[in-house]
Amino acid sequence: MTDPIIELAPRFTEGQKDHLPGILGMEWETVQRGLVRGRFTIAKHHMAPNGFLHAASIITLADSACGYGCVASLPEGASGFTTIELKTNFVSTAREGGVACEATLVHGGRTTQLWDAEVRHEDTGKVMALFRCTQSVLWPKG
User: Fold this and answer.
1) Which strands, in side-by-side order, build the sheet including 27-32?
2) Residue 63 and residue 69: Cα distance in Å, rounded?
3) Mean of pLDDT values over 96-108
4) Who wins on pLDDT, 13 or 45?
5) Torsion over CA of 39, 45, 51 and 52, rounded to 10 degrees?
6) What does the pLDDT read at residue 142?
């Protein structure tokens, strides 16, 4: 049997090209059932006009991590998912360096998944944001 950690992260990185996570340079280290780790290096396109990291850059990282984790954690026979709620608490910001995210599955049921993600500055280790989302598991009609 092959290691799903090695297979899934590159597949998600490749699949996001020309989509928001790819355009923003999101990189995935780990994508497996119940756990996702990813990052990006802060660049001008991540910034708000005020010179600080745009909140949407952090949300894109956390939401993508949780979404990719949801796909990797879908119950047998499910056809996909859609996000039904998300919330982010911002704690700090940054102007340079790397931003890392770790997302973990809190609840993996037949109809919903609940994910938490913590976003940190790689250089300082400081928490930048706490993120939580709920996914609705989709099933084939028939």
Assistant:
1) 27-32, 35-41, 98-108, 112-121, 127-138, 80-90
2) 10
3) 98
4) 45
5) -30
6) 75
Burial of 64-102, coded b for 16+ CB within 10 Å and e otherwise, reads bbbbbbbbbbbeeebeebeeeebebeeeebbeeeebbbb
Residue 8, pLDDT score: 87
Q: What is the value of pTM for the model shown?
A: 0.93
Q: Which H or E run includes 22?
A: helix 20-23
Length of the chain: 142
How far is residue 88's CA from residue 6's CA, in Å, rounded to a whole number? Answer: 29
For residue 36 the two structure tokens come to 């996702």
pLDDT (tens digit, 9 = 90+) per residue, 69-84? 999 999 999 999 999 9
Candidates 43, 128, 122; CA nearest to 93 is 128
Domains of the chain: 4-138 (3.10.129.10)
